[in-house]
């Protein structure tokens, strides 16, 4: 396993990131670099301890968000299509362990874990004697929240993976067994539970800096884990506690979620906090792949994917989310570059439309592949849909779930559905979260039988504009059950052949960092 062989390097990188993280646009990151500290004397004030987790909100995630999350979340799921041969392999299920995107997924997510582990395992013994235990535990809880989130992606992409609670344990032993899926989920739940118990509560601690996760953020994340485990009662209970807390709310206008100045709005439960320095890998690169050439003001804008015909046709008439997600020819966006009218010739990857979501134009700060707008990992609208699904599936009062469900629809300008079923929930999640890097996981969690049929019926082809009106050059691909999890990267298997052996139960009693 390459990243385990290099674990000593990762530990050092993680530690240096804790101590030397550069300033960023978000309030809690906007401070000058404090690059004269060592681990022995840095954590002497509450402010210094609070800054320990800053870097975990951005840079370690860069390769995953930029190069992995959309091929898996959107192209593989059928929400988007591409002619690019490399990423087209996600559409036709021809991915092998040699595919570099899988290597990036593995290395990026384990880098997030390594840097989180550095905070979790360093802080307890590195702080000065006058530091509040509450402050220390809050920073550790942030790191555990983010570590859990990285593991959640890993287990959904690869299935059984090694659980690393302390990278220093593997400096001399890079061959590490993988652990069963159920143990990975248990590890995730323990991390989120610790976060619930130790993160500040924004409803009472009103001075929490914008962008940081809170106790209710952790409840929301844990409710999603229980949703995946089909523990409907716990998913309902936790999501309902988040709703009742009043900490989050839906923005009135869906389109406002994706404007440059909407970072850390009241709907944001957890979002990655990107810098505005213009330095590569410190900013959000999604716009580089989603936008058309000329919109960004830089040399990027590659239109690397387009909204599939299937996704376009899934919107109901009058759904306001369409305008905020998909650029139709002739549409006008006043927020982009002082006013932008979509060209009549727009045609991302043969779809005859483009992408609006996460496209902000030439920002006030930023550079090519480095934009300042946040990437949502969890929004309050999804918490409402978790609550709705859990209730409808028997975890709570059905009518309360229906009300949560219809809050999302009403915001989108649609009529309520009086008796929604699981298919309505599934559809609503698809449209609400379209192109937010999530849909693949929603399809797969419904089980192989459903996923194979659904994915096999997705229209993935382009329009043929040589005909009038345009016709569709149909492309459909049927996955196998094995295609619903991705193979381990070949390089990781070569370095750690234990990945091919049977999973070994994780010893929770022998590990203290979980």
Automatic annotation (TrEMBL):
Record-annotated RagB/SusD domain positions: 296-501
Q: What is this protein called?
A: RagB/SusD family nutrient uptake outer membrane protein
Q: What is its main location?
A: membrane
Entry keyword Membrane:
yes
Family label:
Belongs to the SusD family.
Task: Tell me the compartments it is located in.
Answer: Cell outer membrane
Q: Which domain of life is it from?
A: Bacteria
What InterPro entries is this protein classified in?
A: SusD-like_N, SusD_RagB_dom, TPR-like_helical_dom_sf
Signal sequence span is 1-25
Record keywords: Cell outer membrane, Membrane, Signal
Species lineage, top-down? Bacteria, Pseudomonadati, Bacteroidota, Flavobacteriia, Flavobacteriales
